[in-house]
Amino acid sequence: MEETKEYTFSKTEKRKELLSLRASVTDKIVKARAATDNILPLLSGNVMVYIPIGSELSTLPLITALNDISGVTLFAPHTAGDIITPKKLISVGTADRYGNMPIDCYGDCGKIDICVTPLLGIDGKGYRLGYGKGCYDRFFAGFTGVKIGFCFSEQFTEFAHSAHDVPLDVCVTEKNVIYFSHASDCGKV
């Protein structure tokens, strides 16, 4: 039986702490290139990659690299309200505060095999802490593909999960690739 830890902070407090921590990460460009090198061998098929906002680990080097790989079709998330829809990526534009680009950057909707997701924090079991709207958890609830977190190594932390939280299968940082124990079928990656 696993020991249950009590956390005295709220997710709101933890989000503020993690936003500050992520903003203070140095060498972001170098780390984005290293993380891109680590994640590329895992990606094939229809891949949805977030468009970075704020201090998120940049996916722009990843998107550039994936555009040159045959067998990969790139999608980007489009969020309306609290619903994420994968749409084919036509071009990269400036994202709004929700990560949405101008509508002419998107093509048709599609089914994806792998989702590369942003996060504020991630724990040792693969649970991610996002911005708090629950968009990715709702999306992941019906998603049968591989869920990959993409972040700086500094973003590993501990926090209390909610019943609706969906753990990721893999997390990729500039330092390593971590497969979580519940994701035994990551042969898909």
What does this structure look like?
The structure is a single chain. By secondary structure, the protein is an alpha/beta fold. Helices cover 21% and strands 23% of the residues. It has four helices and ten strands. An eight-stranded mixed sheet has the order 4-3-2-1-5-8-9-10. Strands 6-7 form a two-stranded antiparallel ribbon. The chain is globular and about 40 Å long. The protein starts with 10 loop residues before the first helix and ends in a 10-residue tail after the last strand. The model is unreliable at 1-8 (pLDDT under 50).
Helix fraction? Answer: 10-25%
Structural class: alpha/beta
Number of helices: 4
> N-to-C SSE series?
HHEHEEEEEEHEEE
Question: What are the SSEs and their pairings?
Answer:
Blueprint: H1 11-23, H2 28-39, E1 45-49, H3 60-67, E2 72-80, E3 83-89, E4 106-109, E5 114-117, E6 121-122, E7 128-129, H4 135-141, E8 146-150, E9 170-172, E10 177-179
Parallel strand pairs: 1-2, 1-5, 5-8, 8-9
Antiparallel strand pairs: 2-3, 3-4, 6-7, 9-10
Q: What labels would you give this structure?
A:
alpha/beta, 10 strands, disordered N terminus, 8-stranded mixed β-sheet, 189 residues
In short:
The protein has 189 residues and is an alpha/beta fold. The protein contains 4 helices and 10 strands; from the N terminus they run ααβαββββββαβββ.
